[in-house]
C-alpha cells in the first residue's frame, strides 16, 4: 500500500512539474528552472524536484533525493536509483550511480581544464576549455564540502573537504587536498595508513 501511495504521489509531482519541464528547451532555461525548483523546501520539494528531473534528465530513477538548495547545471546529468544528494550541492555533467550518498555542500565539477590558461594575450574567460563528464560509482559516499573533479569508482568513500583531481579506483577511501587513497575497503585494515600519520584535515577534524 505504501509503495502504491508513493507511486501516486510521484505521478502527481510529474504532472505538476510538466509545464516547467516543457519550458526547458535550452541550457539557460534549464539552469533557471533547476535553481527555481531547488528552493522548494521539505519533503514536498524533494518530491517535486524528482518529478521535474524525471522529465528533463536522461535518467532520474526511483527514490532519488535531491535536497534543498541543490542545483544541476547540465541537462545531461544522470541520477540513478536510490541516489541521495544533500543540501546546497552543485552538480555539473555527472552520472550518479545507484545507492550513492552525497553530503551537503559538495561540488561536482567537470574536470580541472574547464578554462584555458596557456595564453597571456587574452583573458582566461575567452580561452577554450575542456569539459570532462564525471561518474560517481555505485554505493559510494562523498563527504561534506568535498570537490569532485574526476571519476569516483564503486564502493568508495571520499572524506570531508577532500578535493578529487584524479580518478579513484573501486573501494578506495580517499582524503585530503588533493585527495589521496589511504586504504581500500575490500582489503584488511593491516594495510591501511595509520591514523597518526594523517593530518586533522585529512581525518575530517575541524
How would you characterize this protein structure?
The chain has 206 residues and is an alpha/beta fold. It has helices at 2-23, 27-37, 42-56, and strands at 59-60, 65-66, 71-72, 78-79, 84-85, 90-91, 94-96, 101-102, 107-108, 134-136, 141-142, 147-148, 157-158, 163-164, 172-175, 180-184. The strands form three sheets. A seven-stranded mixed β-sheet has the order 2-5-8-11-13-15-16. The protein is flat and about 50 Å long. It starts with a helix and ends in a 22-residue tail after the last strand.
Question: What is the strand and helix layout of this fold?
Answer:
Blueprint: H1 2-23, H2 27-37, H3 42-56, E1 59-60, E2 65-66, E3 71-72, E4 78-79, E5 84-85, E6 90-91, E7 94-96, E8 101-102, E9 107-108, E10 134-136, E11 141-142, E12 147-148, E13 157-158, E14 163-164, E15 172-175, E16 180-184
Parallel strand pairs: 1-4, 2-5, 3-6, 4-7, 5-8, 6-9, 7-10, 8-11, 9-12, 11-13, 12-14, 13-15
Antiparallel strand pairs: 15-16
Helix pairs in contact: 1-3
Amino acid at each position: 500500500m505504501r509503495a502504491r501511495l508513493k507511486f501516486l504521489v510521484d505521478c502527481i509531482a510529474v504532472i505538476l512539474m510538466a509545464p516547467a519541464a516543457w519550458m526547458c528547451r535550452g541550457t539557460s532555461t534549464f539552469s533557471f528552472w533547476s535553481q527555481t525548483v531547488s528552493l522548494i523546501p521539505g519533503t514536498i520539494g524533494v518530491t517535486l524536484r524528482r518529478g521535474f528531473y524525471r522529465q528533463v534528465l536522461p535518467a532520474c530513477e526511483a527514490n532519488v533525493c535531491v535536497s534543498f538548495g541543490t542545483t544541476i547545471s547540465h541537462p545531461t546529468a544522470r541520477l540513478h536509483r536510490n541516489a541521495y544528494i544533500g543540501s546546497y550541492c552543485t552538480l555539473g555533467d555527472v552520472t550518479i550511480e545507484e545507492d550513492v550518498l552525497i553530503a551537503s555542500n559538495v561540488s561536482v565539477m567537470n574536470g580541472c581544464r574547464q578554462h584555458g590558461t596557456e595564453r597571456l594575450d587574452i583573458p582566461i574567460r575567452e580561452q577554450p576549455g575542456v569539459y570532462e563528464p564525471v561518474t560517481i560509482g555505485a554505493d559510494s559516499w562523498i563527504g561534506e564540502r568535498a570537490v569532485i573533479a574526476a571519476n569516483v569508482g564503486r564502493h568508495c568513500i571520499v572524506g570531508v573537504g577532500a578535493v578529487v583531481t584524479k580518478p579513484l579506483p573501486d573501494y578506495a577511501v580517499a582524503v585530503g587536498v588533493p585527495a589521496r587513497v589511504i586504504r581500500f575497503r575490500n582489503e584488511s585494515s593491516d594495510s591501511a595508513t595509520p591514523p597518526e600519520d594523517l593530518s586533522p584535515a585529512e581525518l575530517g577534524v575541524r
